[in-house]
Amino acid sequence: MKLTELLKSIEIVQMLGNTDIEITAIQADSRRIENGNLFVAQTGTVVDGHEFIAQCIAQGAFAVVLDNPQYMPTESNGTTYILVKNSNQALGQMAHKWYGEPSKALRLVGVTGTNGKTTTATLLYRLFKSLGYKVGLLSTVVNYVDDQAIPSTHTTPDALSLNALLAQMVQEGCSYAFMEVSSHAISQDRIAGLEFDGALFTNLTRDHMDYHKTFDHYRDTKKCLFDQLNKTAFAITNLDDKNGLVMTQNCRAQVYTYSTRSMADFRGKILEEGFDGMLLRIQSTQGAINTEVFVPLVGRFNVSNLLLIYGCGVALGVDPMEVLRILSGLEPVNGRFETIHSKRGWTGVIDYAHTPDAVENVLKTINEIVSANVCKLSKPAQVITVVGCGGNRDKGKRPIMARIAFDLSTQLILTSDNPRDEEPHAILQDMAAGLSTEELHRVLMIEDRASAIKTACTLAQKGDVVLVAGKGHEDYQIIKGVKYHFDDHEVVRECANLV
User: Fold this and answer.
1) Is 495 in a helix, a strand, or coil?
2) How close are the terminal C-alpha atoms of the chain, in Å?
3) How many Cα atoms sit within 13 Å of 458 on the Cβ side?
4) In angstroms, how far is CA 168 from the centroid of its own chain?
5) Which of 123, 41, 143 is closest to 324 using CA atoms?
6) Which of 161-175, 304-318, 364-378 has the lowest mean pLDDT?
7) Is the pTM of this model over 0.70?
8) Is the pLDDT of residue 394 over 90?
9) Strand-strand pairing, 443-445 and 107-112
10) What is the Cα–Cα distance from 355 to 390, expressed in whole angstroms?
11) Element spanning 397, H or E
């Protein structure tokens, strides 16, 4: 593609050299540069791409896009230099152009928020697959180009990978695409250039403070997804979250609301609940729906997720009753409140909960179900929680998570999650800081995660519930930079005598 074509939508500050040249590929990784490539220099959190400009030119780069004027030369010397205001944004826009503007050929819906993104995006993918469409999915767990699974490394891929996947979806005939949109992706302009048909907001609680520093910055970053919607798009937001209406302030799109507590376009209420599912009453002003439906998911947080999915289906033109029919048969997403019933009568719950709010939601749901079934047991049921916190991430949430888990559990076991480069013992001490000395006497601290899970399962008796929180779908642990195989499911199933 001609460089002039790539630069059409880019805000250029200064330019040196010839733009009437053919570009063979766009690269943001200096190690991948080949003859004829365009290199986009980005300032990362660890590495500054501007420092590799000379290396890229030596490797054959025809042109360089940069946003640090200190690296802008006074002469081109045969290389084209384009100084822009924001390299990240320019990369997103050029990647979209390079891959044929794939978002324009899809009905693209973005899901953002702290918790519930994976469940919402994945179940939307399954919903539209069940309706007979070819569909794409971009999620934390796995990406899908219709039926083809593609491993996922980030919640939202980098701009080049993202647009390549969207282009592949178009090529395979997909009509719809649902994607999780992380705050990192919005902040780093990975979604720049994309045209969304809809944006969905789940909720907002403390997370990623190591990156955003303040909650306001985190919130305002999420809001940017809604700010960029045009008037032909739709937005669906959560009235039960105090930031729900903040997201859609000044939003040009058609705004819909959902709630489990108050009047909204889409409303839901739990009528009955057990570990295998719940009976809901769904009411909607869109399609005048007022009906009951059983779904194989549990928890008020999942009612919210299901209302969001239902609302999105309706906003995309699907018959409301058809949406509910399919939702009633959808299974939980991998690692999201997955239940495993042991032969000894206790129930294991595996959940990705890795924020204070998520831990609280899952434990409150477990306690509600346990309380509802107390008359069926000869003794009060225990709720035994195994939880840890990831290393090299927001340290401030560690004591909060321990506090919540202690208050809502009969027995708490603190353990490792992904320690990464931190010492597991130090992470556990950070969590323990949320509890008093007396409370810590009633807490088990077991650094080895497998041993912690096995201990919890050994303590469990008939009617008890073992929550294993924090890793969910992940099948690995990262310790001192080394990735080891580890799957909570495997350990729990072994303890439940199911393997």
Assistant:
1) helix
2) 55
3) 7
4) 21
5) 123
6) 364-378
7) yes
8) no
9) unpaired
10) 10
11) helix 397-407
Residue 83 in contact with residue 15, Cβ under 8 Å?
A: yes
Range picked from 321-335, 357-371, 398-412 for highest mean pLDDT: 398-412
Give the 3-state secondary structure of 281-292: EEEECCCCEEEE
Residue 298 pLDDT grade (very low, low, confident, very high; cuts 50, 70, 90): very high
Provide the 8-state DSSP code for 355.
Answer: S
Q: 63: Cβ–Cβ under 8 A, 6 or more apart, which residues?
A: 3, 17, 19, 21, 23, 38, 39, 79, 80, 81, 82
> For residues 405 and 435, is the Cβ–Cβ distance under 8 A?
no
Tell me how far the alpha carbon of residue 343 is from its chain's centroid: 33
Q: What is the DSSP string of 186-254?
A: HHTTTTTT---SEEEE----S--HHHHSSHHHHHHHHHHHHHT--TTSEEEEETTSTTHHHHTTT--SE
Q: Are 186 and 112 in contact (CB under 8 A)?
A: yes
CA distances from 281 to 266, 267, 297 (A): 11, 8, 14
What pLDDT score does 374 carry?
67
DSSP string, 24-67: -EEES-GGG--TTEEEE--B-SS-BGGGGHHHHHHTT-SEEEES
The pLDDT of residue 376: 65
Please give the Cα distance from 184 to 180 (Å, whole number). Answer: 11
Q: Of 148, 142, 138, 140, whose CA–CA distance to 176 is shortest? A: 138
Residue 332 confidence (pLDDT): 85
pLDDT, tens digit (0-9, with 9 covering 90-100), for 315-350: 999 999 999 999 999 888 889 899 999 999 999 999
Q: What is the pLDDT of residues 88-142, one digit of tens each?
A: 999 999 999 999 999 999 999 999 998 899 999 999 999 999 999 999 999 988 9
Average pLDDT over the chain, rounded to whole? Answer: 94
What six digits make up the tokens of 243?
């930031």
- State how far the Cα of 173 lies from the Cα of 7, in Å rounded to an integer: 28
| Count of residues in the chain | 499
Alpha carbon 448 to its chain's center? 27
Whether residue 155 is predicted with pLDDT greater than 90 in this model: the reply is no
- Number of H helices and number of E strands within the chain? 17, 24
d(CA 348, CA 367): 13
342 and 491 Cβ atoms separated by less than 8 Å:
no
Query: How far is it, in rounded angstroms, from Cα 120 to Cα 110?
Result: 10
| pLDDT the model gives residue 206 | 54
The 8-class DSSP code of residue 480 comes to T
Task: List the domains of the chain with CATH numbers.
Answer: 3-92 (3.40.1390.10), 99-327 (3.40.1190.10), 338-495 (3.90.190.20)
List the structure tokens of 482.
């080394």
Query: What are the backbone dihedrals phi and psi of residue 249, each rounded to the nearest 5 degrees, phi first?
Result: -60, 130
